[in-house]
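Side project, low priority. Logging it here so it doesn't get lost.
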Amino acid sequence: MDNDFPKKRSAPPSKPNASSELRKESDIFKEENASYKRPATTVGYRHSGQPEWKGELDELTIKRVHDEREIRADLEGHQITHLYIRGDNHLSLPDIAPRVTHFCLSDTSQIKSLENLTHLRKLELYYVNLSSGWPRLPEMSLEELKVIDCSVKELPTWLGNMKSLRILKLDDNNLGTVPEAITELSSLEELYMFRCEIRQIPNRLGNMKSLRVLNIYGNDIEVVPEAVTELCSLEELSIAECNIRQLPERLGNMMSLRTLDIAGNCFEEVPEVVTELGSLEALDMSNCGIRQLPERLGNMKSLRILNLPYNNIGVVPEVVTELSSLEELKMPCCKIRQLPDRMGNMMSLRTLDIAGNCFEVVPEVLTELRSLEVLNMSDCSVRQLPERLCNMRSLKTLDISANSFEVVPEFVTESSSLEVLNMSYCGIRQLPERCHSLQSLRSLKIGFNEIQSLPLWIYKLEKLEILDLIYNEKLLKIESAVLEMKSLVSLDCEKCESLEEPPYSVCQQGITAIRMFFVDLAADKPVKLVEVPVAAI
């Protein structure tokens, strides 16, 4: 929520003049100087007379105010339902928003008691200094509480009385442990404690029978207690980057678990208990030092997402092809040189990421993945693509950047289903003169090549929204046919400094400036060339 408001803080009040400095009491000065105003506070709000808020910033009334009277004038008898305040403020919440249901406060050292806001259901505090203590909160109504980066070292004991609380997020604080008060929250369903310097999880955590999500990413736990396995309703568990070397033996009994994130820990091999999770649908073991995948991985028939980036797998075993429900497989930078022969049998696979491996020749088995929609083979030392790739009729996104093609593979220009194509960093000197198939393309990235001219078929891509040409330092011209590209919203020519028409100084300002150049040129108007400052380039 901190991005919802301008970054600049409120300006301090102006210094009093010489005559006012003689007054010893600042309050007297404030009363007698009609021009005095407190620092303005950024406020966003919605009231009961407006349509239901969909969560978009432009649906809020946002203004800089000095006191609550400036807000009341807008309400017309309605009650504020959503309130967002950034910066130190002197607003009286019970007066201006007695029935507020959603309240967000950020970037302040001032916070008063909120316990009289008995309709409050969601409270968010960002960068609010709570090191000296918490404000009282409404214990009966609050359902969601977020306290992010607020210098919290301990939680108040009365927090355990909040029996309606369903979601608690305490990221980036200095708690050291999971406080006992949290274990008394009988209705809590989601608990997030990212980077809270937690070293220990209390055994009483196992009593939280309503907990569905537990995310304690980025702490220093080392040992996961058996108490976690007693969370019978848990569906999502993230213990990524916690210096864990071993998982509890009874983890395999957690039949409700659907998502497990153990990325960034020290395993070397897939823990056996993980393969016993028969209901697991998503597994992330990125950057764990894993050297091989076990045969028992094939038992995980419910698995839909498997993330294994930055491991040392080398050889992908045939057992991976037995994961009949797998839809997304990510294995970038795993030192893989060969894919299993039966990979073409993975009929459910929609996304495959094998970037940063060492293939040189694209495995033919990929052409048998008829349901594949996303393929990332960037930085794989590939020099050519197999002709049979044109059989992949479902392919919508293809990333073959950072390979060594020089000439665009013929298959690419024949793929009628492609919507996103990345061929950056490929050493391409020339694009094919003719292409009639890429009519579904929405994004084309061909930056960091040696292209000198764009063929006319590019200007006929009616659905193209993004065209990235950056660092084609030999590119000389963009045709006026760009005016016909009605869907194009982004044309990036950064560092295409050889451009003569339009001049580079125009092109680096983007698609709007380029269009205006050609419109003025067609109307025989003098073209205004704007010198762009070096700092903006």
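Brief comment: The helical segments are 26-32, 69-75, 93-96, 180-183, 272-275, 410-413, 504-507, 511-522.
Revisit when time allows.
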